[in-house]
Amino acid sequence: MDNLKLNVSLLRQRVPNLTSAAKSVGLRPATVSNLCTGKIPVGRAEVRTIAALASLAKCSLDELILRGERVDMIETGIKPLDLFAPLAKGGTVGLVARPGMGQLVLLGELFHHFKAGGYVTILLKPEGEYPELQDMLNDVQRVANSIEETYSIVANTSREKEIVFAADREHVLTGKIYDLQERIQQEGIENVTTFLVDLKGAAVDEDLPYGPLETLWYFDADLAARHMFPAVNPLYSTSSVLEGVHLDQHHLSVQQRAQKLLRRYRELRSLVQVRGLQAIPASETEVYERGERLEAYLTQPFYVAEAYTRLQGERVSLLETLDDVQAILNGSMDHRSVESLSWIGTIK
């Protein structure tokens, strides 16, 4: 039962406005989103939920549920992404943030890594003027002015090349992105990974801002306010890669332990902010301090932000991230100050 997953691309094609459709049949959009990203395993979902989704998509259960399908990850070199919500290769990732939380800086850093790694990078130009996009254009190889132009670029790119493609949510709301993805799929093109951003910042208030997704990155207002970038929420961001059958068990173990620590740390931090460190029991002080160190370690200097931060950009492999996080969780870094773990690449 653990190697089951929803056919997200089919849902995306058949039910463009999944939020309204889900509500109309009594399903919670959050539940549907968690099923799509794998946060809730398909094997643990209620039968009526799966049946309702099949009915909405006008398909059989065999079409809706994929068995034994592997979802591979693309290693980004960005610590919180690779640890908590790995990028699903060939899937669609949605970034949920308000303006000023750093989503475009993160996207720019990703495109910087992808371009250096030999990927073809494409940006579908949004309507209107967004000067903040200028900083990432150096790492965009092709800027498309329409969906048709995007399709032409993708179709004429060698199938041996991996493609990363970014678009604004306005193209999701019109349904054009889904039309594009359906055309690409019909052509048998499987080398395109799509990034959806919300330049207006309205997606934060939506239950399913982009429809079904393989990966979801939520940005955290508190982290952004404290300039702890990338401000990706480690508890709410998720990915279909996280299903046990797709993820190395060591990775899954470290990820779950890190989330447990950060969840408790955040609870304790609320008390400490109001009443000071003496407000928490002595037995919880170790948890609080390790959570503080882990949160600091998850910050990372970006190559695309060097001119602003005066810090050299760092790329950290998943293996290095897992080793470092495990060292923090096990107490091997208890002698290190929080400051010494902030804005670094690896601990070594």
UniProtKB/TrEMBL annotation:
This is ATP synthase A/B type C-terminal domain-containing protein. Keywords: ATP synthesis, ATP-binding, CF(1), Ion transport, Membrane, Nucleotide-binding, Translocase, Transport. GO terms for cellular component: proton-transporting ATP synthase complex. It comes from Paenibacillus glucanolyticus. The lineage of its organism: Bacteria, Bacillati, Bacillota, Bacilli, Bacillales. It is found in: Membrane. Residues 247-324 form the ATP synthase A/B type C-terminal domain. Transmembrane segments: none annotated. InterPro entries: ATP-synt_VA_C (IPR055190), ATPase_a/bsu_AS (IPR020003), ATPase_alpha/beta_chains (IPR050053), ATPase_F1/V1_b/a_C (IPR024034), P-loop_NTPase (IPR027417). Belongs to the ATPase alpha/beta chains family. It comes from the Bacteria. GO terms for molecular function: ATP binding; proton-transporting ATP synthase activity, rotational mechanism.
